[in-house]
Design a protein that fits this description.
Shape: flat
Number of strands: 2
Radius of gyration: 55 Å
Strand content: under 5%
Helix content: 55-70%
Largest sheet: 2 strands, parallel
Structural class: mainly alpha
Strand order of the largest sheet: 1-2
């Protein structure tokens, strides 16, 4: 286009328009404004395309440019018509409209029209001419100026003459005859004229209104077209040169439209929300449009979620939405930056993206928040070995962190990372910055003979938070350790002499170490796992001697006493290690190391690595008990300790106990023993069992009172959970002899645990020791708890408390109104009116406990049974079982009363406990007429207990029920298992006869009735002895 090749430019723009590439509207605008390009139609098309997609700020200029092109097109049309048409006619007929201009068909029909219709046409023609002339009159001034600017006076005169209506030219237009379509054969779809354009093969209904009279002329009308073109030119020029300014009273205007402004604003916002929602939906990101339009927090989350993208279009949409809905742009940019660091793009792409989106400009507005987000979110996602990424991270901190200390420190990081990129690839830089990190382990993998000196120089510049860098000595120590064990030499050391030679080869690096690093280096050689496995014991002893000698030499070189103190401590530590290594030669240690017990061998290995450090020895000894080993094994481990060690088995027991108690107290412990994955209560149980065994064996160096004092200190600590205290005291009670005060303390703790567990939300009550001191105080506490009991779980807790507490005074149990068990049972029954089953189970279990403790005497027992009977059928089983706890016949009457009230027994009305109680209380004869007798017999058969069966048979025999007693004995005594389901002799005999040859040949159906009558007659005369004898005979047969 700049070269003047408008044809090619037009072709390109045509492709942009046809392809709907809205980004190309700028190019289309430039070509549309190009005055050198003569194709006005194409220019207008391109400007229309630009108007469709341009930003609001460009719309006014584009409208003006399009009007200029349209005006040029109209000028060209006017000039063309003036050159080709005859303009001498003075007739006004050319201005007739569609209503007044007849077609040829109309002319034929017009012969039949009346004179009135002709008058109507003439009136319309005159009206149209008047309108046209008035329009020309209004725009005469503008049109005159316009035409004057482009043509001569002769042009204007000829143009006015040309505008006269040319009826002859008009009548020479379309002469096609209109054929009336009657749709007589009903082959076309009839419709209103309004829908004619959208229905193919249509027929316009003659019933509806016709639009023919109101349409623009369908034939060529040059005069009218020329007039309209001039009018359009005038109006466009007025648009370009003038503007109508409407002045009004703003106060009155606001008053009139105030009620509509809010509606308009609200509607505008809804439309904008809808448009944005549609844009979100096109992204396919799973955004809930309805929720997005109504939920502010969801809207903010959605915007921030859109910022987590690599797509520029989506990110731009996120920025647009953030501006519209008031979401922090800083937060959007920060979220986008976090996503960039967490994505898989390369650091070069990340850097380019930051520059293109100008993230630094926005993020630098809040330096404190930026640094906080970078440290808490971004730095975590960066691999410590990716120096390029870390460098980009610190560059951003430096650029956007303002004058914060972290920003100033970032400069040091940048300088150091640039040096490390080439010389220490793979170094985890992030780990170096962590406090208390193992610098030696971090440096060791990346150190080589080529980079060790370089890293030693730059390591001191590592900006740690403590303010001190890494000493060069540390770098040399790490390299010496690596070199010693992983030397590139082809010859691997095999003998002690070879290893000592390897040690001496590290002399240059040892010379550059400070005392602490020399100690670390020697420790790695003589006490570590790798050193113990690879290096012989004699060689390790030799290392310690040479290291001690070196330390003393260095100490003598120091001029100041303070400077030499470090070397003195180092020589003392290494010398102690040498002595410790000598212990490993002893037969005691060798026996321990070669023990058949795997656990003992493990303790020997761990002892070898302690270096006789007092803290490590204590840790090892405590581990023996913590890991469940016995005192005997502990004594074996202690036997290899140095002679100057003061550790005794008693000390170990107390140290281990304090360690466990400190664990529950949450205090820091001096002994670093790992108990992760173990149950501390089980460990405590083991330790206290060892204490018990020690005391049982006559141990005198450890008093039981010392152990109890430690446990009491835990119970007195308010920071320890009550539940924990109860568990610890329970374990202590199992192995130690608690005094009365300790037992009282246990009760208080347990009571507090039960109360806290059941009434924590309903009752803010702390159980004190005074509340359990006497029968009256416990009764008052129980009354309070009963008052606040609202659930079955709380009722169960009341029962637990009564079991836990010591007995009340005897008079409390005698009185029905003061009996604590009866008070709890009344509360349970009160709560269980609607659903009594859960409460009845609790009452049955608790009543057994109370009855065996003689805390539910006669009158109270009777009251409980009667209260249960009031509940009806649902409590038959429970009331009967509770009644059977007593041997009082008056109470047993309740059982009989219950069973007589039942017409048909169900499985829910009895269980094994009830049936066994009936037999043990000798109530079988009494219950013989009741429905419970059948389940009782079935229970005896299933139980197979001959003692119970014999008891039931004798009860029936003594009561005169000989037939039933014989039947019961005959069923169970030595009868084959296949016949156990027969419950009377006649049934069994029928079965036996049916199996005989007679029964099969005759047909048992014919004999069944006679056999039954006969058996029932004779069985009444059978005695118990007869039935037993019959059974024996059957067995012999």
């Amino acid at each position: 286009m700049w070269a003047g090749d408008f044809v090619v430019a037009s072709s390109v723009c045509e492709q942009l328009v046809s392809g709907n590439h809205h980004e190309g509207w700028v190019v289309c605008e430039q070509l549309g404004r190009a005055h050198q390009y003569a194709n006005l139609v194409a220019r207008a098309r391109f400007l229309n395309f630009a108007l469709t997609y341009a930003t609001p700020s460009h719309l006014e200029d584009l409208l003006n440019a399009r009007n200029e092109v349209e005006m040029a097109m109209l000028y060209a049309k006017v000039n063309t018509q003036m050159d080709t048409e005859d303009t001498t006619c003075d007739s006004d007929d050319g201005f007739v409209d569609a209503k007044s201009h007849p077609t040829d068909e109309d002319e034929e029909d017009g012969e039949e029209d009346s004179s009135d219709e002709m008058d109507e046409h003439q009136g319309l023609l005159q009206g149209t001419l008047g309108v046209t002339r008035s329009v020309l009159s209004v725009t005469a001034s503008t049109t005159s100026n316009l035409v004057t600017s482009v043509a001569s006076k002769q042009f204007w005169k000829s143009a006015i003459n040309w505008m006269q209506p040319l009826h002859e030219l008009s009548s020479q237009g379309e002469n096609d005859q209109l054929v009336e379509d009657t749709n007589a054969d009903f082959q076309q779809q009839g419709c209103h004229a309004f829908y004619a354009d959208i229905i193919p093969n249509h027929h316009i209904s003659s019933i509806g209104a016709s639009y023919k009279s109101y349409a623009l002329p369908s034939i060529s009308n040059p005069a009218l077209e020329f007039s309209l073109a001039l009018l359009r030119i005038a109006l466009i020029e007025e648009t370009l040169t003038q503007g109508n300014t409407i002045k009004t009273n703003k106060t009155e205007l606001n008053g009139e439209v105030k009620q509509f402004v809010e509606l308009f604003t609200s509607t505008e916002e809804l439309v904008a929300d809808y448009v944005q929602g549609q844009a979100l939906q096109r992204l396919g990101a799973g955004v809930d449009i309805d929720r997005f339009l109504t939920d502010a927090s969801y809207k903010e989350d959605t915007v921030l979620g859109l910022a987590m993208t690599l797509d520029s279009e989506v990110f731009d949409l996120a920025l647009t939405l953030a501006k519209k809905y008031g979401v922090s742009l800083w937060q959007v940019h920060m979220t986008h930056l976090q996503y960039l660091f967490d994505s898989d793009i390369t650091t070069a792409q990340l850097k380019q993206h930051i520059i293109e989106k100008k993230l630094n400009q926005t993020l630098s507005e809040k330096p404190k928040e930026f640094i906080l987000c970078m440290e808490q979110n971004v730095l975590l996602t960066v691999n410590g070995c990716d120096h390029e990424r870390l460098l980009q991270y610190y560059l951003l901190v430096e650029q956007c962190g303002g004058r914060e200390s972290e920003s100033l420190m970032a400069t040091s990081h940048i300088r150091l990372l640039k040096k490390l990129k080439g010389s220490a690839e793979g170094l985890n830089y992030k780990l170096l910055l962590k406090p208390n990190s193992d610098v030696l382990a971090i440096l060791r993998p990346v150190l080589t003979a080529e980079n060790v000196n370089n890293l030693a120089k730059v390591a001191k510049n590592v900006p740690c938070k403590e303010g001190a860098g890494i000493e060069p000595s540390t770098v040399y120590c790490a390299w010496a350790q690596k070199y010693f064990f992983d030397s590139p030499s082809d010859k691997k050391p095999k003998t002690s002499s070879d290893w000592i030679h390897r040690y001496e080869s590290c002399g240059d690096y040892i010379q550059k170490m400070n005392p602490s690093d020399v100690v670390k280096f020697v420790n790695q050689l003589v006490l570590s796992d790798v050193g113990s496995q690879k290096v012989p014991l004699e060689a390790r002893i030799g290392f310690t001697r040479r290291a001690v000698k070196f330390c003393r030499q260095q100490q003598s070189k120091q001029k100041l006493a303070d400077d030499g103190r470090g070397w003195q401590e180092a020589s003392g530590t290494i010398e102690r290690w040498g002595t410790h290594l000598d212990l490993l030669r002893s037969s005691t240690f060798q026996n321990l190391q070669k023990s058949k017990d795997k656990q003992l061998r493990s303790y020997a290995t761990r002892f070898a690595q302690t270096g006789s450090s007092e803290s490590l020895l204590r840790e090892l000894s405590c581990s023996v008990l913590l890991e469940g080993s016995s005192m005997a094994m502990l004594r074996e481990v202690l036997s290899v300790y140095p002679d100057d060690s003061t550790t005794t088995p008693e000390d170990v027991i107390m140290d281990t106990l304090r360690l466990l108690l400190s664990h529950w107290k949450g205090h820091d412990t001096q002994v670093n023993v790992i108990t992760e994955g173990c149950d501390p209560l089980k460990i405590l149980d083991h330790v206290l069992s060892q204490v018990h065994d020690y005391l049982e064996d006559g141990g005198e160096l450890l008093a039981e009172e010392e152990v109890l004092e430690e446990i009491r200190s835990l119970c007195e600590d308010s920071s320890v959970l009550l539940n924990t205290k109860v568990k610890v005291l329970t374990v202590a009670e199992k192995h130690l002899s608690l005094n009365e005060e300790d037992l009282q303390l246990v009760r208080v703790m347990r009571t507090g645990g039960v109360v806290a567990g059941a009434w924590l939300e309903d009752l803010n009550l702390t159980v004190e020791q005074e509340q359990l001191a006497s029968s009256d105080t416990r009764g008052a506490l129980l009354t309070t708890l009963i008052t606040h009991t609202t659930s079955i779980q709380q009722a169960q807790a009341l029962v637990e408390l009564l079991k836990l507490w010591p007995p009340f005074s005897p008079e409390k149990y005698v009185d029905v109104l003061s009996n604590p068990w009866l008070a709890v049972f009344n509360k349970i029954l009160e709560m269980s009116e609607d659903k009594p089953l859960g409460g009845l189970d609790i009452i049955w279990e608790a009543s057994q406990e109370a009855f065996h403790l003689d805390q539910l005497p006669g009158k109270n027992h009777i009251v409980l049974v009667k209260k249960l009977q009031i509940l009806g059928r649902v409590a038959v089983k429970c009331s009967s079982k509770v009644a059977l706890l007593s041997d009082d016949a008056a109470v047993h009457a309740a059982v009989i009363e219950n069973m007589e009230s039942i017409k048909e027994v169900k499985e829910s009305d009895y269980d094994g406990d009830l049936l066994s109680g009936v037999i043990s209380r000798e109530l079988v004869p009494v219950l013989l007429p009741t429905p419970l007798y059948g389940p009782l017999v079935a229970h005896l058969m299933e139980a197979g207990d001959k003692t119970l069966l014999k008891s039931a048979v004798h009860q029936l025999e003594n009561a005169g029920h000989h037939q039933e007693a014989a039947s019961l004995a005959f069923i169970q005594t030595s009868i084959p298992k296949a016949l156990h389901h027969f419950v009377c002799p006649s049934d069994m005999c029928i079965e036996m006869v049916q199996a005989t040859d007679l029964g099969q040949s005759v047909g048992f159906e014919d004999l069944e009735g006679d056999v039954v009558d006969l058996l029932n007659h004779h069985v009444k005369t059978l005695t118990l002895e007869d039935l037993v004898e019959m059974t024996w005979l059957e067995e012999e047969k």
